Amino acid sequence: MAHADERQTEDVAQDEESELEAHLQTKRMMINLGPSHPAMHGTVRMKVELEGETIIHADPEIGFLHRGFQKSCENVTWNQCLPYTDRLNYVSAIMNNLGFLKAVEKLVGVEIPERAQYIRVAASELHRMHDHLTCVGAIGLELGGFSAFLYAIEGREQIMDRVSELTGARLTTSFGRVGGLNRDLPEGWIDRVGKTLDKIHELLGEVDGLLTNNRIFVDRMRGTGVITAQDALDFGFTGPCLRANGIGYDVRKARPYWVYDRMDFDVPVGQNGDNYDRYLMRMEELKQSEKIVRQSLREIPPGPIIVDDWRIALPPKAEVYGTIEGVISHFKLVMEGVPVPPGEVYDCTEAANGELGWYLVSDGSGRPYKVHVRAPGFAILSGVHRMIEGKMLADLIPTFDTINMIGGEVEQ
Amino acid sequence: MSESDGKKPTGDAQPPRPGAPTTHPAAEAGPSPGNPPPAAKPPPPPPGKPAPKHPGFVTVTVDGKELVAKPGANMVDAVKKVGSEIPYYCYHPRLSIAANCRMCLVEVNNSPKLVPACQTSMTEGMVIQTRSARVQESQRAVMEFLLLSHPVDCSICDQAGECKLQDYYQRYDFRPSRLEGEKLMKSKRKVLGPTVVLDQERCILCTRCVRFMTEVAKEPQLGVFGRGSAELIDTFPGKELTSNYSGNTVDICPVGALLNRDFRFRARSWFLSAAPSVCTGCSRGCNTFVDFMGQDTYRYRPRENEAINKSWMCDQGRLSYKSLNQNRLAVAMLGRGEDRREAAVPEALKSVAEQFKALAGTEGLAVLASPLASNEDLLAALAFARDALGVRSVYAGGRADGAGDHYLMTPDKNPNRRGLEWVARGLELSLKPFAELTERIAGGTVKALYAIGGEVPTDPAVAAEAFGRLEYFVLQASNESPVTQQAHVLLPAAVHVEDEGTFTNLDGITQRFRRAYPPRADSKAHWAWAVHLAQEFGFPWIQTSARDVFREWGPRVVELASFDWDGAAPPLKVTRGLNPIATGADGRPPGYRELGVPRVRGI
Fold first, then answer.
1. Is the predicted pLDDT of residue A299 greater than 50, yes or no?
2. Average pLDDT score over residue span B241-249
3. Residues on A contacting B at a C-beta cutoff of 8 Å
4. Class of domain A69-411
């Protein structure tokens, strides 16, 4: 026994000696970022292989937020899918709601009233600002600029107040119904939005001043997380991440929907495809969205907010309580859902992160036969390794910020 | 069963025009593999009319599509072949034509006015339009008219969810009410008889119920009274709707006017799921749908079967679902009288196997089989009785004979009497009457009994007294009764809707039924108990489903050997409840209401 102990101690001594004598060398190291990490938006795990501080290999692993969104939709009526869509990109829930409704309406073949179109545009753009403010603020936060974050969140909070006045919810809005909207603008809302936009304009100036020309910030952002235009196209990038590469694809311009063709706005385009350009895209889009919100609320016409067709929209409450026609329609719509004709459709809108596409199949019943969502974040996340491999570990954080991955929509 | 209650596709419709090709015998029988239309001798074309495009058939154009139909085929049914749909209320394929609801009006090329599709016979070259602007306007107008005095009742109406008014309003009208003033008031709850209650305000006077009672049930107890807006359905003065078939009027009522008093206000139709099954009320074997929610059956509805029950079933059968819910045994019991206690399944099985091993092969051990059990139950249980218990005869239990009637209901109240006879013969067991069993128990020759099913053809109290003399009594039963009080071992049995299987009706027709929901608590199908007991005996039986059981022993029974067990299964058109329960809410997978409420602590 004693003999064995001796030999063991000898071995250990030898090992220690050899370790001490070994040349300084870098060993490849695997580290996990996430799934629970403040810089991992949502719950995503990034398996990173490092040599020193250089990223050799990066592999984003998703699925921690998977909720079976697409399958769940098959069990509920078309309108009941809305609360599920809230939870896709939960930073701009209204855009998911309305994008889904637009696809359903295309399948039904119904044109929604003009007022509803204006409100949809205004609400979407408000939430685009909400999304971009969050993104920009988070970039600042994670690169050490906490003040910029507070300014951005202050603006975001103002939008949340306006959204909760409009929809009744701060985050999970479930706004709109097939054929139009479930509620009209609240009293005095347009004025309050104007004031909010003024305030946000002011706050954006602060953020701009704090970040855009900040040496520390620019050094971390410029030239990092670069992707070539060809790669971006190949991976299916859309939205600000694609436009940062100089490709001016925007669904609002390429295939205008609702009243976007009447709106006076520009689509900002970058040229380098790096983090800094992606940041600039969002800053500029914030200003363009502000323009759109102001214009749409200025030009909004009076009129109905939902189609007057009892096969699609619920009858007015007085009719439901007082007439058999109303109560039948209400029953059928609530219990069986909007009878969407059999067929399939692909339709898309420009969401905050890019093209939010819906592939819907109906078998003619009141429930979807199949719902598939093309989440913009999914395509972008699948190209993230191309942006950071061979770069430093510290570049991963701003890169992950500027692609603005949202767990809810990527993992569905 | 009367012969003349079948389909009357023409009814009081216009007689075929002279010279129309309906007179040809082959044409009347229609196209079928066994009856090809004669090619050599086409019927002579009527003078001045075009020769039929397809001799022996009528060729018409429906919404631009060519339809080749049997002469005499009803337009409402025929147009479905080319994907068109004609709405209707008063038309029913098994009743005469009334053409009073006007919902099926269509446009045809040889009439200036719209014609009722149910009443108009199709002629060669006719051009039918079911969705033209005129037709759509007519459908909308009819719907508006029918809803004019309809009460605002959907929220309290049993028919909501399966109501033709709702379906057609949403499809053909979908416009607001234009009614100014009051709706017409009539009797809201007119009790017509023991089974049926009528809401005269909801009635659209299609007269389906009146025609059914006259033509099918042959008990004309309903009539139309009054004229104009005072017109209503009622029984004749001083009379009641007492027919054993009155429940069918509720089924065929297209709106919520006629309601079943048993089902009334008990469930919303969209929460109910349905499984195809067979009625166990008598030996007719009427095909049914079992409407269920959780692990409770709420009603039976007749399922169409041309050979047996057409579209109908009797009221007694309809109410026989109650035994599936009431007085059910859920857990195994050991001991009799004051010694009785609940037991876990393995303990009960072990105790039975120990006792039976000592008794097997002795004269004192008898077996009682119920003709309420399915063929699979009987196959496994009787195979166990023969191979393990060593008996050479079984006694037949089951319900006592009752009254039959003039149409579907038979005096024999057991759904599988013929199956029991077949299975016993196939397994080389002789079948003895129940009276002999009680005699032999009284005489002391039978001391122990293994009973499959607790139903007895005598007064249960009398039978229970006889069974009280038994020294050892193992009973597999689904419902509590005086007989179950006498068992030394009581094994809870599943009922037919809780498992798959087959019944053989009195005409020797073997029919598959499907499972609606799983058995309650510890209860198992008879075959499952038998297989478990055999395993305790050390037999290498591995059957885990009724299908396995049928494959193992079915071929031993001559009459069942050629039965295609899988092929005979009714299509699984389980209509699910509309609001599926979310995953994990109570342990069921999402969308599967039919798996029942789990019997776990805390829920």
1. yes
2. 94
3. 72, 75, 309-311, 315, 319, 321-329, 331-332, 335-336, 339
4. mainly alpha
